[in-house]
Design brief:
The complex is a heterodimer.
Chain A lengths: L11 H4 L16 E2 L1 H9 L7 E4 L16 E2 L2 H5 L10 H10 L8 E4 L5 H12 L5 E4 L2 H7 L30 H7 L3 E4 L3 H5 L23 E2 L15 H11 L8 E4 L5 H12 L5 E4 L2 H5 L10
Parallel strand pairs in A: 1-5, 2-3, 2-4, 4-5, 6-7, 6-8, 8-9
Helix pairs in contact in A: 5-10
Chain B lengths: L10 H11 L3 H14 L5 H4 L6 E2 L8 E7 L10 E7 L5 H14 L4 H5 L12 H4 L1 H20 L4
Antiparallel strand pairs in B: 1-2, 2-3
Helix pairs in contact in B: 1-4, 2-4, 4-7
The chains are: A alpha/beta, B mainly alpha.
Amino acid sequence: MGAPDLPVYRGRMADLQISEARFAAYTHPERLVSTDWLAAQLDGGNPEGVVVLESDEDVLLYDTGHIPGSLKLDWHQDLNDQLTRDYVDGEQFAKVMSARGVGRDTPVVIYGDKNNWWAAYALWVMTLFGHEDVRLLDGGRAKWIEEGRPLTKEVPTPAPAEYPVVERNDAPIRAFKDEVLAHLGQQLVDVRSPGEYSGELLHMPDYPQEGAMRGGHIPGAKSVPWARAANEDGTFKSRPELEAIYLEEQGLKPSEPTVAYCRIGERSSHTWFVLTHLLGFDDVRNYDGSWTEWGNAVRVPVER
Amino acid sequence: MPAVETADLPKALAEIAQDFVELSVPERLQLLLEFSEELPQLPSRYADAPEKMEQVHECQSPVFLVVEVDEASSSDPAKRVVSLFFSAPQEAPTTRGFAGILREGLDQLTVEEVLAVPEDAPYRFGLAEAVSPLRLRGMVGMLGRIKRQAALKSTV
């Protein structure tokens, strides 16, 4: 089966109900579900047949307790190829989905720790494969727990689903180094911490293991640390608040091609989600090579 | 059964390594979770004074450790007994599991035994396949800091 036609966000998703009124101002409100909505789904016998996946930074966090019925999706073990620095191929992705009872049309809700940082990454990778109906639980794991909702250690054993082998379609939402070089002079968003952007730090604070030979940022990139898009409780900021940051303060234009990057493309998946689904930017690509590639590449331009 | 070199590990750590490698990969995660759950609480002398502990910056979560060397245990600094204390958040079970392994494997050894632990010991548990090699670097950082504190605190 070939790659799906573009854009990938049409069709059934657009007809879905908005799970909560406060999402209505976003361009694609159907990409978010609230904790209330999910709890009601699960209590009501899951009429929509949603599969809930947890994607965390910590590979064991799911095992300490998770949303009843949810399954683990680990960014490193399930979504990354173990040999090449790349994502899994269509065959492996089909296995990962099938084992979780996810078919091509299954609605998937992803949630995770740290403001849904890794959940957004998993959503972005699922989008590379054109899985249409994939949404985030607004507020993620922290909000679910904060609200005193149930957790369980019981791991479900879903019946395997049929998932087709679909080739990844990277071009619309993923940028590679040469494409970023060709993109210089256009909109770039650096979502790392201020210290990483300025070049003072060669790694993320408290993550010194993924360093780079050079510090700084890609020339012309705007600095918008990814977590600015999140509220204290892990939910996304409202549309007016997001517009104040990305459009007014940074002067980014939704109609112009945009590339977001961080260190390995995980934090920038979160920003990709914000720009694409919440603010309706037309063309956003995530540069997953990010600073661990750019800051180590020979003779690429660096700005401080 | 995957081969694992344990001859140069202290006895308790070698046993833990053997336990891990004999398990399937999903079972290794469960065992790591058990170590995470069994990590002892800090005694009040550290719980109330976190500034006495050293942060392990190699970890992706706020992890702190402190090494005590019991001067009364031997007149020979190399033979003195080492105690280990860790603090890591419940939301970081992988990191807590690493701390739990090191505590169970190294606590109450002598300074010279701790210093003799090979730097690559964290790679002997078959965990690279289970949690990814990137995540294991946090455990390497913990071990390095334990050895450094043990060396510093045993020089007169």
